[in-house]
Design goal:
This protein has one domain: Gcn5-related N-acetyltransferase (GNAT) (Aminopeptidase, 3-Layer(aba) Sandwich). Helix content is about 35%, strand content about 30%. It is built from four helices and seven strands, in the order βααβββαβαββ. Strand 6 and strand 7 form a beta hairpin. The longest helix is centred in the N-terminal third of the chain and has 22 residues. About 25% of the residues are buried.
């Protein structure tokens, strides 16, 4: 049943895994910037994505105040990446930096399970709320965030900022 929580675990990402992750993450983020209308040109979108990525992860997987995990299923397969950082904008807030499940595992409850687990992880580390950016052209993600109690606090046209207090 799709509504059941899946048995998953998190594994901290190491530097070798980070190198692989960073290549596809920057490319995917640039594509989202274009689809959202925030960037019109691929070159500028990639440049913006690389810049933001470098700001978030200045020291790769070992960047301070970052919690970047590989999502593992019960068979110990790598099925996604999820993570957050201590918000650079406000105290005691966790800002989601990544939330992606491999396509073959989507629609099966893994994303929901990972997202619930990441909120528990942040709460255990002393954060009182979670903040995230969601592109409007990703309605499945938007719906999942809403169902998990996130509310829109800023609307940029192609994307929104959402938050949830724990």
């Amino acid at each position: 049943m799709q509504n059941e929580l899946k048995q998953i675990s998190f594994k901290r990402m190491n530097n070798d895994e980070f190198k692989v992750y960073s290549k596809w993450s920057v490319k995917a983020y640039a594509e989202h910037l274009i689809k959202s209308g925030d960037e019109k040109f691929r070159f500028k979108a990639v440049k913006a994505a690389r810049s933001e990525f470098a700001d978030i992860f200045p020291d790769g997987a070992a960047s301070a105040d970052n919690y970047l995990y590989i999502v593992m299923n019960k068979e110990n397969e790598k099925i996604g990446v999820i993570g957050y950082q201590k918000s650079p904008f406000e105290e005691n807030a966790a800002f989601v930096t990544e939330n992606v499940i491999k396509e073959a595992y989507r629609g099966k409850g893994y994303g929901k399970s990972a997202f619930i687990k990441i909120q528990e992880d942040a709460r255990e580390k002393g954060f009182v709320k979670m903040v995230l950016n969601c592109f409007k052209h990703t309605p499945v993600s938007y719906s999942m965030y809403e169902k998990n109690g996130f509310k829109v606090i800023e609307d940029y046209g192609g994307s929104v900022i959402m938050e949830k207090y724990f």
